[in-house]
Amino acid sequence: xxxxxxxxxxxxxxxxxxxxxxxxxxxxxxxxxxxxxxxxxxxxxxxxxxxxxxxxxxxxxxxxxxxxxxxxxxxxxxxxxxxxxxxxxxxxxxxxxxxxxxxxxxxxxxxxxxxxxxxxxxxxxxxxxxxxxxxxxxxxxxxxxxxxxxxxxxxxxxxxxxxxxxxxxxxxxxxxxxxxxxxxxxxxxxxxxxxxxxxxxxxxxxxxxxxxxxxxxxxxxxxxxxxxxxxxxxxx
Length: 236
Ligand code: ATP
What we know:
single chain; about 240 residues; alpha/beta; 6-stranded mixed beta sheet; 4-stranded antiparallel beta sheet; about 30% strand; globular; binds adenosine-5'-triphosphate
């Protein structure tokens, strides 16, 4: 059981962003992808979701292939993504932003109970339920983006740079929520430039360089690896 990526390639026209990446994301785990700007982390997530059309390789969810699925089918099968930069709807209220995350579901009783569930995780959003998304602080917008993805009731959540642009205190706050989400049994694939944070919360990590896996291992091993320390943890 779990999500397996085998020899995945993805391109934008002539630009090859992902060049044969294989990942194992066991159910219940938290796996991270770290690497510099442009290493192909975002493209890997987008390719898994079916958001990059030009892709090949294999993506297996509990052994079932997703490689021909459209993005909405991937979401229906239980995988949701929180994009980098949040992409919330600035002119919709917090409540309506959240309901957009449940757009393909029709049972309004279930949607209401999911709203209550995400408000339990993010009480701050409940306080701001009628506020427009664009007027929230950066940290609150990130919470909203994560909460919106949860409205699709995913079993797997792909998080793209949740700490980007946030102050250290807000990074701690977001990661507190991410750990709570994991405790609810949701499997996480986390992309981060903040390698320290990512390795701290994950079980296993992959280091990407120019579209390929350069290194992989248990997160604690990676944290102690001198190459990783030098290149990604700012240690000498
Ligand atoms: P970042 O942290 O900057 O998002 P990343 O590791 O997520 O970096 P990607 O965004 O996946 O890297 O980019 C991988 C490569 O693909 C880069 O060379 C980038 O310039 C290129 N690329 C990304 N998006 C596009 C696009 N829409 N069109 C063309 N090239 C793209």
